[in-house]
Amino acid sequence: MSSARGARRPSSPLSLAPPSKRPRLQPCDATELVSPQVTAQTIQCTETLYPVSAVPVACNSAVVISPRMQHSLSMLEQESHQLRLQIGEKELEGKGTAKSYPRQVQNYQLWFEADQARIAAHDSTRVLIPAFPVTAAKVTMFLHHETTREKYKQGSKSTIQDSSLGKSHVAQVIDALEKYRLNQEHFYPRDHETHVSLRKDSRIRAFESVSRHNEPKRVKKSQTIKAAGASSDTYTKAELMRCSLWCLTDFSGPQYIFVGIRDRAMLLVSATTAFRGKGCRMLEWSDLFPATVPLDQTNEIQVLAALAHNTKHNQTGQVDEHGAIRHVHVELCPVGALACLFFAHFHILNSAPPDFVPDFSNKSYGEYGYRKWYEYHVFYTGCPTEEMSYENHRDRISTMHVKNNINITKKIHAGRHYAAQTARAHGASVNGTKALGGWSDNGSFNPVYDRAFPLDTLLCAGMFNARRPEDYALPRNSITPPQALMGQIFPFIEQAQQDLKERTQCSQLATDIALRQFLSVLLWFRLVLLQDAALLFAKHPELPVFHFKPFNTQLFRDYAGEAVQVVAHAEEQAKMAFHNLPEHLVCSLKGLITSMTLDRHAQRTENEALRAEVRQHMETQSALLAELASSKGRGGGKSNKPALRSATTKAAAVSHPTHQVNQPPAPPSLLLQTHASHSPHAAMPNVTINISAPAAQRMSASAPASAVAHADTLLPLTLPAAARSESSAVFSADQLPVVASTSPSDPRSEKWAALLAKHGREKLDTHEWEWKNSDWLPRYRYQPVDAITDVWTEYVDGLNGYLSTRELKDRWGAKWRRNEGGLKTEAARRAKVITLIEQLSSKPNWNVPLALRFVVEKYESSPAYVGKVRAFCDYLQKDGGAGFQAVLAAAAHYP
């Protein structure tokens, strides 16, 4: 092909003309930039850096650039590349590659120079080749050295015999030298090899491909899988638990206690949200917000959500949301760990709340002003506005591993591996797990990678069963801490919320959605912290965090002791309730029963507080009325209005009851009235005490009768008690202590004391009582039942806190039914079921649990009798007991 002047092969690289052949311009004005002798044809054939249109005048001589222009262009070139290098340095800040890349480049330089010296010493015909600029040929030789040498021992210059470096190391070497080549290529404009990417060279690609291909053989040779286990390169549950408790235990002094709590929170957040190390370090206060996910049509789960908008996997500026729920194990709960971290910041370090007021004087931040608290990091070192460094993060995790004898290769990414593995092990879907950690899916992941939280993965990360979300239950979430304790945690929240509201009303530019959400998170953290601390205190009272207020107060100790008992009792009740049921029913209903038991206890505790208060008022009124009666006797026929007013005034001064587990309700209002008696035998006016509680304190109709103290059963109550008719009085149990004994041998007091000793106050409180025929007679209605076995439970243990029907029968016979037709009919109907269970359990090799299991599997679970207890009772009674005999015959072939 003709080599005409100016022609260039298509494959020839674009290069700059040598400086000696570049067109030059002498100092002159714009009209003198180009010599008049240069023609247009000459310009078109001249190799320059600029298009022909930039030349103002056609001439016949070469274009000449002045030295000043050449200097300016050179400086512009250097400044533009310097900006690029600065951007690259900022991109590496806080990453492990900021130190590993320079280390690899230094290793390359030292080896290459030593290798060239060795070659030159053995071959006099060869000269030393410099290590720079980096080219594919030089890197190829270095890769050959790296893939054939042995690994160095950690922290030592000695090597591990018969070891080799893997594909990850080879990839990092290539990445580091490629990064250096890109940063330095502008210094070698005429060297073609310095402008070619290393991975485009076939020699480099061959080494990288071979390293990947040989990785399985290398691992097999080193026996890593057999020695360490294929899936053991992350935490086990026991190891994570050990690390969590170590962070809370092995530190003393406020500053070090804070460090331990911070490291624990950082570990647990990563282990449940699958955050990368960088994602944890850059997490800020303003990134936290509360959210919920629907569990079913009526229930929701509270989620702690966090924004992630500049992590390693997200370089497009998209705002991602990660979430976590409370863990089934309090030691591994990320929400509780973060709540404890903020407690350490505000209460252990005694740090003041930040200034949430925006600074509108700083014009660099736009019309919404500068908000310094936006820069506060969750996991900080020294100052909240300073992000933790990669080195510090790695050192803290490494120390944690050493102290707890954990041998895994991962450090800051270990929690990310654990989160993914735990989620999958507990039934999370692949797409849900990818959404949890932000793993890319090349487009097919887009339907999941949105702002919706993956419910299955959230449940699995908290070690709940994603395959059965209906089983979700968190017993400690049903405990309400005392308000006195709640008010001591983050006491600035309410004032900050009020200030934000006032600022927003004054100016829309003062709106701060992030602050509103963050304060809501802190309010939730109050509850979470006290609930989790109660259980932790029961297991580990020696933890240093419990030396700080309010955990070192008697109020917290009392609350913690009662809370643990309540949770344990609720779980035990749920376990006992399902002792005789099939496994699939147990799994479905266990969480529901546990929550119902805790709610019932909370209602009962609140009602006990109300009853104690009412009892106190009534005792006071009894004393005042006795005083009133005596004043009436002393004053003859004089009016008792002054004494009555005095009694009313004293009654109003009755103090409030002391603290209970739930916040006690407001005291009921009392109204003391007198009215003339129409009985000719009355010796004094009747006095009626009307007590009414606020509507907000009345329990719902669905609450069990044991938890309700109805005003209509309490009142009106006419005093004194000695004047009452013995056969017409009906009392609720909480009224009985008010009935004063007129003599030490009062039979009512003796009978009531005997009942208390045998059955306990809790069961007696659920009934109304009537003093009849010199005995206390309870009132009871058969409870609604949905399962056949509930009839037996009502007979043996009682339902909804009432005395069992067997206890009623043994103590009062049939008198408690008061000859009511409905009760007699229902008693006969349910007696068939009771007789059936007794006969079945009396068979050889049978017992009560086996009899109940037989009834559940053969009849209770069948469509004909699901929720139809009466239909089964009628079946047992029909045809003169033929159904009863059919059941006994079926039992002969069971199990």
CATH superfamily of the largest domain: Centromere DNA-binding protein complex CBF3 subunit, domain 2
Report low-confidence residues grouped into runs of 5 or more: 1-61, 224-231, 312-317, 636-728, 737-744
Number of helices: 30
State the major sheet. 3 strands, antiparallel
Structural class: mainly alpha
User: Could you estimate the helical fraction of the residues in percent?
Assistant: 40-55%
CATH class of the largest domain: Mainly Alpha
The side-by-side strand order for the widest beta sheet comes to 1-2-3
Q: What would CATH call the architecture of the largest domain?
A: Orthogonal Bundle
* Beta-strand fraction estimate: 5-15%
Oligomer: single chain
Domain Transcription activator GCR1-like: 786-849
Protein name: Transcription activator GCR1-like domain-containing protein
GO biological process, one term: positive regulation of ribosomal protein gene transcription by RNA polymerase II
Biased composition (Low complexity): 1-19
